[in-house]
Amino acid sequence: MRRIIWLLFCREWRLAWRRPGDLLNPLVFFALVVSLFPLAVGPEPSMLRAMAPGVIWVAALLATLLSLDGLFRSDYEDGSLEQWVLSPHPLELMVLVKVLHHWMVSGLAMVLLAPLFGMMLALPASVLPVLVLTLLLGTPILSLLGAVGAALTVGLKSGGVLLALLILPLYIPVLILGTGAMDAALQGMPVTGFMLWLGCLAVLAITLAPFAIAAGLRIGVSE
C-alpha cells in the first residue's frame, strides 16, 4: 500500500508540472487580490492593519475555490477515476493523497507567501506567526471540504457555480476562526482558543472528509 501511495503521489506531481497554469493560477489570484487591496483603500497603515485579516483569509479562500473545479475533472475525463473506484485499494486513502498534493501546491504556497503580504498590509511582526499558523491549520480544511464538493460535481459539465454554492457555507466557520485569531492577536489577546478550534476542525476534516469524497466519486462515476 505504501508503494501505491508513493506512485500516486509521484503521478500527481508529474501531472501538475505538465500543467503549470493549474499551479500558478491560485497563487497569482491570491497575490493579486492582496496586492491590489492597498491601492483601492489607500495606504493608511491603521486601516490596512484592521482589514488585513479579512483580506488575506478571503483571498486564500477564493484562491482555493478557484483551483477545486478541476481537482478530479481530468481524472474523470480520461477514465482514471473509474479505475480508482474499481481498484481493490482503499479509495479514501487514494483521494486523501490527491487532496494532500492539492494542498501542497496551492495551500502550502499561500502559507509561505503570507508573511510577505502580511507586512504589505502593515501587520506587526508579532502577528505574522499567528497568520502563518492559522493558514497552516485552515488551508487543509479548505482543500478537504472543497474536495467533497468537487467530488459531488465531478460529472457535471459546468459545476463551478454549484461547487461554490455547496462549499462556501462550509467555509464560514474556518473563515471566522482564522480572522478571529488574527484580530485577537492584533489586540494583544490570547489566540489559543481559536487555534484549538482550528486544530479540531482540521483533525475532523482529515478523518471524515476522505469518506465523503470517496462516496461522492462513486456516485459521480456510476451516473
Task: Kindly describe this structure.
There is one protein chain. By secondary structure, this protein is mainly alpha-helical. It has one domain (2-222). It contains nine helices and no strands. It has helices at residues 2-18, 20-41, 45-66, 73-77, 80-86, 91-120, 128-152, 160-186, 192-222. The relative contact order is 0.14. The model has no long low-confidence stretch (mean pLDDT 85). Belongs to the CcmB/CycW/HelB family. It comes from Halopseudomonas formosensis. Pfam families: CcmB (PF03379).
Distance between the termini: 29 Å
In total, the number of strands is: 0
Q: What is the SS-derived class?
A: mainly alpha
- The percentage of residues in β strands lies in under 5%
Characterize the overall form.
elongated
Number of H/I helices: 9
Described by strand count, sense and barrel closure, the largest sheet is:
none
Rg over C-alpha atoms, rounded to the nearest angstrom:
18 Å
Order of helices and strands: HHHHHHHHH
Helix content: over 70%
Mean pLDDT: 85
Uncertain segments are none
**What's the domain count?**
1
Organism: Halopseudomonas formosensis
Main location: membrane
Function: Required for the export of heme to the periplasm for the biogenesis of c-type cytochromes.
Membrane topology: Multi-pass membrane protein
